[in-house]
Amino acid sequence: MSYTVVSWHTPDYAGAAAKLERSLDALNIPHVAYECDRLGNWYDTVCHWKPRIVQRALAEYPDSDIVYTDSDSVFHSTPLLFEAWDSAYDIGVHYLRDIELLGGTQYYSNTPKVRKLVDALLSRMDARHLTSQMALVELLRECENVNVYRLPPEYCFIFDISRVYYPTVKPIVEHFQHSRQARLR
Q: At what angle do helices 112-128 and 132-142 cross, to 10 degrees?
């Protein structure tokens, strides 16, 4: 199955989203970006849109797996891992230092099981006011039938933090943490 890269952004992230789009175009990677309304503060906006965009993309692109990436990321080279995704895995996420799940790049196989997982993620977030990362960590611990692939650091490389822990890694998908400034607004 092929994959489509999806992201979302508010109007104030349009510049970062344009950089992502140019990087994907240069590599001929199929992609779609959704522009979404800002919902008050940073937390409410991010918690509302990110998992809903994944859910929407899984429905709109039924013949394609979904790679979610934050709009402030860029693809430096072809993600060969995604090109040859092992269908035995349901989801791919990166754990910084094998401890903290990072939400910047995630691979979702477009299957009924994964669509149910995303529905459960949204339900849990809404019921308990959790971030998508926190809710996903809980669900992945509880769901023994979900096969998780641990993405290597080059697929979810934070421009400064990852460089400290993985100084020799050459990023494939690099994240620039635009939200650090946005949270201050």
A: 120
For 25, residues 6+ apart whose C-beta sits below 8 A from its C-beta are: none
C-beta pairs of 97-104 under 8 Å, 24+ apart in sequence: 97/165, 98/150, 101/133, 101/136, 101/137, 101/140, 102/133, 102/156, 102/158, 103/50, 103/70, 103/131, 103/132, 103/133, 103/136, 104/69, 104/70, 104/73, 104/156, 104/158, 104/173, 104/175
Q: Tell the residue number behind the tokens 């402030």, with chain if given.
A: 72
DSSP secondary structure string, 26-71? Answer: HTT--EEEEE----SSHHHHHHHHHHHHHHHHHHH-TTEEEEEE-T
Q: What is the per-residue pLDDT across 55-105, written as a single tens digit (0 to 9) for each?
A: 999 999 999 999 999 999 999 999 999 999 999 999 999 999 989 999 899
Look up the CATH number of the domain holding residue 65: 3.90.550.10
Count how many domains the chain has. Answer: 1
Expressed as residue numbers, the domain containing 105 is 2-182
Higher pLDDT, 71 or 129: 71
